[in-house]
């Protein structure tokens, strides 16, 4: 297993989409956390792929055309190649060539970008408007906030820098409404709270546990 993979699983960045494999287990993560914990966040189209003999099952190298970078300007200002495990059982990511634009997140090791099933990866046309706005300017405003996952009731915030993430309580599971439409942003009073974009971030308007 490549050295980056264990780190990715530990971070628990969450991949949307139909790429799951039974042997690859990832902890759910809100897209904002995935953004803040990634070295690189880009929108790109895959234009080619190549399997190379690295690791136990090989490494898939995708050649991409970068459309826009949202995070990672100092790490790697332009991404041309993305590396991932060739096997889905090792969290390798399968992407379509010359078909879709993707939102891709990943880590940088030895000057190369790596990604996988435990990273936040989604077709660009499947992202909500709120998620696109989050990538452009909202998510980075909340990188000092903590999104606290709630799996079972009761759940509470325990510090002013926390937002309670309750998508997992829904019958629909995740990705849920908070993942698709909310960012956790620090407000004027120093508290972090969910922000929907309907009004300027203000603690007097938005409750710290909203929604």
Automatic annotation (TrEMBL):
MF terms (GO), sorted A to Z: metal ion binding; metalloendopeptidase inhibitor activity; protease binding
Highest taxon above the source species: Eukaryota
One cellular component term from this protein's GO annotations in UniProt: extracellular matrix
PROSITE patterns named among the record's database cross-references: NTR, TIMP
UniProt signal peptide: 1-23
GO biological process: negative regulation of membrane protein ectodomain proteolysis; response to cytokine; response to hormone
Disulfide bonds: 24-91, 26-118, 36-143, 145-192, 150-155, 163-184
Keyword Ubl conjugation: no
Compartments it resides in: Secreted, Extracellular space, Extracellular matrix
Similarity-based family: Belongs to the protease inhibitor I35 (TIMP) family.
Protein name from the UniProt record: Metalloproteinase inhibitor 3
Organism whose genome encodes this protein: Heterocephalus glaber (Naked mole rat)
Gene name in the database record: TIMP3
């Amino acid at each position: 297993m490549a050295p980056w993979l264990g780190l990715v699983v530990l971070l628990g960045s969450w991949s949307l989409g139909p790429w799951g494999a039974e042997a690859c287990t990832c902890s759910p993560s809100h897209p904002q956390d995935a953004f803040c914990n990634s070295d690189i966040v880009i929108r790109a189209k895959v234009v080619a792929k190549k399997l190379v003999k690295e690791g136990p099952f090989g490494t898939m190298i995708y050649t991409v055309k970068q459309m826009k970078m949202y995070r990672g300007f100092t790490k790697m200002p332009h991404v041309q190649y993305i590396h991932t495990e060739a096997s889905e059982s090792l969290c390798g990511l399968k992407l379509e060539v010359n078909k879709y634009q993707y939102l891709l997140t990943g880590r940088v090791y030895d000057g190369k970008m790596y990604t996988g099933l435990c990273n936040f990866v989604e077709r660009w046309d499947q992202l909500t408007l709120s998620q696109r706005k989050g990538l452009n300017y909202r998510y980075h405003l909340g990188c000092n906030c903590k999104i606290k996952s709630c799996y079972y009731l009761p759940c509470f915030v325990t510090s002013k820098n926390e937002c309670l993430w309750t998508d997992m309580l829904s019958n629909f599971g995740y990705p849920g409404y908070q993942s698709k439409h909310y960012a956790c942003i620090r407000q004027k009073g120093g508290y972090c709270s969910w922000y929907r974009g309907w009004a300027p971030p203000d603690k007097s308007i938005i409750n710290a546990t909203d929604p």
